[in-house]
Amino acid sequence: MTAQAVASAAHCEEAQREHVKALLRRENAVLVAHYYTDATLQALADETGGCVADSLEMARFGREHTATTLVVAGVRFMGETAKILSPDKRVLMPTLEATCSLDIGCPVDKFTAFCDQHPERTVVVYANTSAAVKARADWVVTSSIAIDLVEHLAAQGEKILWAPDRYLGHYVQQQTGADMLLWDGACIVHEEFKAQALLDMRHVYPGAGILVHPESPAAVIDLADAVGSTSQLIRAAQTLPHQQFIVATDKAIFYKMRQAAPGKEFFEAPTAGVGATCRSCAHCPWMAMNSLDLLAGSLESGDQEIFVEQSLGEAASRPLQRMLDFARQRR
Ligand code: 13P
Ligand code: SF4
User: Ligand 2 — pocket residues by CB below 6 A?
Assistant: First the structure.
């Protein structure tokens, strides 16, 4: 690209950003973005009084905000969660096509049959699921409170049926010692991180800390200096003494990590190595669909709106609300 073409592209992006800001004001809307979305959208959310957060905080922020329209930049379950918790608000997304492999891998009919086979178990589902799956659950959790909640349930002698992420489920099981029966789902992004290649990389950067999202395989988690949700990993980047980090989660998080820990260096954990197919290479293909142009289009047309049927929404809101109440008590 010539220097002139670069300047012209930057000018267009700036004009589009201003256009989106005006649309947000016009629609009395607030932008709620996940850390895995494009840095442009994260910056826009910050500049316009919205939020950039993990999935638990996105849910809480959207519900408590006074805007009449929530624009959720993330994946579909995040938009659905916002709608379930705020049924009177309009919820838009840049595109309704942004989904999640965990959601896809847990269809409600098969999940219901699985639950019916184990009626003695308390059903705990990860937020990365459809409204229908949530409606069948006793509890919803996100990665930031999964351990606390399962510990709490196990202390009351409850046996757990967990869905859909088997890696997160295995990690929680290991940390809490709870009796957990796991659904067989996975995140196509985190599943790709490779332990041996990560060990090799640590030889190249011997002083680097390793930050791992618990949707990753156990062998990768075992190498971590910190394991946690996206917001917990950002905090770890800030508080751990290392000056360099190898990060096993979506690389779009680097935008906030660099803000939180200026001067520190961040490297993507390897997705290459034995058995690698690298379909995702440390970036979620569905999160990547959230573009500035689609965001503008959605605000202009209103055609990317989330709807959740009322009785389904009411059923799904119960385990979601329990999660938010539990998280508030823990804070
Ligand atoms: P967090 O709840 O940690 O933000 O994770 C959401 C997610 O989809 C991770 O892949
Ligand atoms: Fe789903 Fe994985 Fe994408 Fe998160 S990163 S939204 S778990 S596919």
Answer: 75, 100-102, 128, 187-189, 215, 250, 284, 286-287
